[in-house]
Amino acid sequence: MLSLPLASAPASAGVAGTPGSPGAGDPYFPTQGNGGYDTQHYDLALDYNPSSNALQGAATITSRATQDLSAFNLDLVDTLTVRSVTVNGAAAAFTQSGSELTVTAALAPGQTFTTVVRYDGKPTHVLDPDGSRDGWIRTSDGVYNANEPQGAMTWYPGNHHMTDKATYRFSVTVPDTRVAVANGDLTSRSSGGGRTTYVWDARQPMASYLTTVSIGKFELTDTTLGGYRTITAVDPKLAGQATGFAARHAPVLDYFSSLFGPYPFSSTGGIVDHEPNVGYALETQTRPIYPRVPSDNLLAHELAHQWFGDSVTPERWQDIWLNEGFATYAEWLWADRRGVRTVQAAFDAAYAVPAGDAFWQTPPADPGGPADLFHDPVYDRGAMTLHALRAKVGDTAFFAILKGWASTYRYGNASTADLLALSEQISGARLDTLFDAWLFQPGKPAL
Ligand code: TRP
Ligand code: ZN
After folding, report:
1. Cis omega (within 30 of 0) for bond into 149
2. What residues does ligand 1 touch, defined as CB less than 6 Å away?
3. pLDDT digits over 195-218, tens only?
4. What residues does each domain of the chain span?
5. What is the pTM of this model?
6. What is the DSSP letter of 379?
7. For the chain, which has fewer Cβ within 10 Å, the N-terminal or C-terminal residue?
8. How far is CA 3 from CA 19, 111, 325, in A?
9. What is the 282 CA–ligand 2 centroid distance (Å)?
10. Domain range 314-440, CATH architecture
11. Domain 218-298's class?
């Protein structure tokens, strides 16, 4: 959406400036993200009381203006109350409306600025277009915090579209009886007055839908296994089923590193929280969150996302098959490696869906809309697309494409068109017909 027209044009910033746009331009979620600036770092100081659900936050956000700004927006639901905003240390006027927090500030293009937002309230999750819950999801002992595709705005202000990646520090204070687990590396833990503050540093760029601050009664382990710093948090209710959970990561990461290139992040691990009603796991960066102890397939799926989705992130929600198709294909590869089922058998089983089935009516790279992001065609036909590509270009080129994708777009964003271009460049083959049939056309593609 475009903002107000520019009136006259005096020279200084903020006089000539116009408001940054209230959305990043994603057709599936038009108000997600904002225009006019680019964020580099979030420092989130959160204080949470699980019994009352009272959250107090101070978000210190470092950004750079990309236009002459008179105002800019952050995404934050208005069930949380903003108490003050400063920009570069000076108090700034602000308004809250729906999920848009608008801050008045005059900023010149290229200028780096620091915004501090103080806020509080009782956060609640949002309902996604597909009916699932997303965001700050309360559990019996804390929070199951999963934010794909739009939950981040339920607990902190930010530029919440996947194209604006940033590094993060989370400093989370909870009662001593609880643990706060976030992305990245646990860098300190300090207690006093019955409360403990956990500091987590996510040092590699991250899309905000991959952030998590999960809180609860957890058994926390922090060890280096197979060269990977592995930090796990397991709900004591599930501890009996989670024996060896930490040790299950390194073999999967080793295998995927051999196929996709080096593991992109400074630590790994997972959060196993007892949450029977959420119904989905999420590839939260460095540390996926699971509503139960994951199966081998689910563990492999979420770890594969660390390359495909987390390090290389789509440019828009419509391209979500670049996450789910790749992670599903990685499940097939891992099952083959373990001798459970060959990739070919997995493809054959998926392809056996009859041509008349509704499944084939959804092309994965054009799934329909925001309610269709996590439906089977995105996952299974997405994975079949990769297998069809492999059959066409051969194993050598195919695995060079996977590695090239992970390295070329490491820590960035990419599109389906980028994958086509890279695949053609690496293989030397023309692939537009194959991509079109598998990804964009309804109907069962011929073999
Ligand atoms: N990206 C998750 C995964 O496949 C799935 C997911 C995220 C999801 N949000 C969802 C599935 C909402 C269903 C509903 O690993
Ligand atoms: Zn997935």
Report:
1. yes
2. 130, 132, 148, 280-283, 301-302, 324, 374
3. 999 999 999 999 999 999 999 999
4. 218-298, 314-440
5. 0.96
6. I
7. C
8. 6, 20, 36
9. 7
10. Orthogonal Bundle (1.10)
11. alpha beta
